[in-house]
Amino acid sequence: MKNVTDSFVFLGHWPSAESFGVNTDILATNLINLSVVIGVLIFFGKGVLSDLLDNRKQRILNTIRNSEELRERAIERLEQARARLRKVETEANQFRVNGYSEIEREKMNLINSTYKTLEQLENYKNQTIHFEQQRAINQVRQRVFQQALQGALGTLNSCLNNELHLRTINANIGMFGAMNEITD
């Protein structure tokens, strides 16, 4: 036992044991305390930090995957929109070409119908002129005939007797009736 007590007594003679107490050197104590705290944090916090970094890495990878999927969907939509645009442009060009040809066709139809209408009007005009000429000629004939008839009747009345006068009148009435049938 003496050895055990000697070892405790011997502790009192250690030079570092004599300075065991409050260390007033702030820089030395802070450095030691800081290194102990960092060591404890690294030892115990390595798992937590690793889990946090792994979670962050997974979130970043998921975000990248999602953005890639969104990008691919956007590219698909863009291609679909371009295809629809090409289709609409093609249809618009067809409508434009068809519209131009339809306009030209309608223009030609209108010109042709106008020419036909003008031809018909010209024919109607010519028929009307011919009809009016015939009517005027017939009126002139009737007047000339009436005047000639009146002149002949006047001459006959002064030269003829009653019996001859009646026969002449009957003959003239017959000729006049025949002329009216011809003009009608």
Automatic annotation (TrEMBL):
The gene is atpF. In plastids the F-type ATPase is also known as CF(1)CF(0). InterPro entries: ATP_synth_b/b'su_bac/chlpt. This is ATP synthase subunit b, chloroplastic. CDD domains: ATP-synt_Fo_b (cd06503). Its main location: membrane. It holds the Pfam family ATP-synt_B. GO terms for molecular function: proton-transporting ATP synthase activity, rotational mechanism. F-type ATPases have 2 components, F(1) - the catalytic core - and F(0) - the membrane proton channel. F(1) has five subunits: alpha(3), beta(3), gamma(1), delta(1), epsilon(1). F(0) has four main subunits: a(1), b(1), b'(1) and c(10-14). The alpha and beta chains form an alternating ring which encloses part of the gamma chain. F(1) is attached to F(0) by a central stalk formed by the gamma and epsilon chains, while a peripheral stalk is formed by the delta, b and b' chains. Belongs to the ATPase B chain family. It is a single-pass membrane protein.
